[in-house]
Write a structure and sequence with these properties.
Strand order of the largest sheet: 1-2
Number of strands: 2
Distance between the termini: 26 Å
Radius of gyration: 15 Å
Strand content: under 5%
Shape: globular
Helix content: 55-70%
Mean pLDDT: 92
């Protein structure tokens, strides 16, 4: 059985990082967890940075995230917050790639192929990941460029 990982607001926004993590969770590489508070945090951060965004669409994204993952919403966690140590999302994704390289590549390929407006080449997609701070992940994925 896959282990659980708490996805904080800083990895649910920006969207490219969120997409990878959710696709891996849907593929059962790990069990994604978040709280209603974390949802509020990433939505508010996105709206602060991009006030033209439609809150209703972001709430729809939240609903789809909750529906796509099993038991993702956690409650009663507040007493654990002081002890939480959240890893860097790049380190986490590199670990996932090491544990399940084929599944990770399939997931990333699936995500990239869904991006149609505009479409992304593999190279463009890896540049996007680099811009989102996933420098190590993008560099590691270079070796799999033919299957992405």
């Amino acid at each position: 059985m896959a282990y659980a990982a708490l996805l904080d607001a800083n990895v649910l926004y920006p969207a490219p990082v969120r997409d990878i993590l959710l696709q891996l969770a849907v593929a059962d590489v790990f069990r994604a967890r978040w709280s209603a508070h974390i949802h509020s945090e990433w939505i508010e951060a996105l709206l602060r940075n991009e006030p033209e965004r439609d809150r209703a669409k972001l709430e729809r994204t939240r609903e789809m995230m909750d529906a796509a993952t099993r038991d993702a919403i956690v409650t009663g966690y507040e007493h654990l917050i002081p002890a939480l140590e959240l890893p860097d999302p790049d380190d986490f994704l590199l670990g996932q790639r090491n544990l399940a390289p084929g599944v990770v590549c399939q997931c990333i390929s699936k995500i990239r192929k869904r991006l149609t407006n505009p479409p992304y080449t593999v190279e463009q997609y890896l540049v996007t990941l680099t811009r989102c701070g996933l420098v190590g992940t993008a560099a590691e994925l270079q070796q799999f460029i033919t299957v992405l």
